[in-house]
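Input chain follows. Return structure tokens only.
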Amino acid sequence: MTEIALMMFAVFTVLMVVGVPIGVALGFSGAAAIAMANWDAPMFGLMAIPQNFYAGIAKYPLMAIPMFVLVGSIFDRSGVAARLVNLAVAIFGRGPGILPMVAILVAMFLGGISGSGPACAAAVGGVMVVAMRKAGYPAPFNATVIGAAASTDILIPPSIAFIVYSVLVPGASVPALFAAGVVPGILVGLALIVPAIWLSRRNGMGAGEAHMPRPPFWRSLREASWGIAAPFLILGGMRMGWFTPTEAAVVAVYYGLFVGMVVYRTIKFKDLFHIFREAAELSAIILIIVALASIFAYALSTMSIIDPLARAITSSGLSEYAVLALVVLLLVVFGMFLDGISVFLIFVPLLLPIAQIFEWDLVWFGVLLTLNVALGQFTPPLAVNLMVSCRMAGVDIQSTMPWVGWFLLSLLGVMMMVIIWPGLATGLPRYLGY
């Protein structure tokens, strides 16, 4: 079985290196391992492949993913981001560093609606790129700020990553994970504001911002009120017991369509086909990866290599914090090359036994893994949020390198805080009784 497991990881690595899509690499390597492990009864082994493919997505919490993806597409076109930007500028005024701060704050708020980093980067970038360029901020800096700001969306509930984690870890409920992500998500946003303002003022950016008009506060508040109400409706409704997280996603879809088509009238009937198609394509990609990763996970479990590996690590003489440091390093490195969902699907089955042996809180561990994924979404070469913001700003990802490091330090700082003080993640769920 050990030889088959090594072969499986070797096949997966080779397929990834030659450019095979992550889902196909996971499914093919897992299926090959299952076939080899059941060589004497190949039909019996191969029957496990379609069964696990179906079982991987036949889970009630996963129904929320297409809905939250659709919410992101709807609010991307509804004009909510532009109205939130006007309100933030009306509150904080004008000056060097204010527009980058506004971009981060608006991204945090949109995270409470869709939970999709790329969708947030597109929505905020569509509004802020032009405004920041007119104010004198260089395009690579604009792309960096927006890409970093969108990384908060995976932490601030509702989060697609938390939904996937809850499916992989039965001991961590979706409401508990949503609550656990609030404080770390806010801390990440505040931490990103520090380098955004400091770099703006240090490098003399935004000189033209002081001469731009300041929107009237009350009109901006009135226009943004429908967008402001969205996260309170979604999260408040779940807390009050009006609907489950999956049902909350459906409520958010109808609310977003109402705001976009009736209130703001920025979404027309002819736009619905493109919105639904975009959401369907992205949802299909996510769910197919989840289904194919289930074959990979089944192969790991049937070969019984996870528990011996976990016991070998924990009996190696390394301290708990040394093992945790290795886990963080592993996830940061692989997060540079894999998307967030794939990181969860590959590494949660491997790391969960280690977390259980050390008796780590599984909700806290989920937040820590999600912080690593947020870091990966902003770390080249495969930085999905940064790629979206660079496309919006019209620059290549290499031009953002002078700025990326400062924001990565802020993300790492919050990660260290969550490791040192686990109550930052576990305090709110315990207070709410989850």
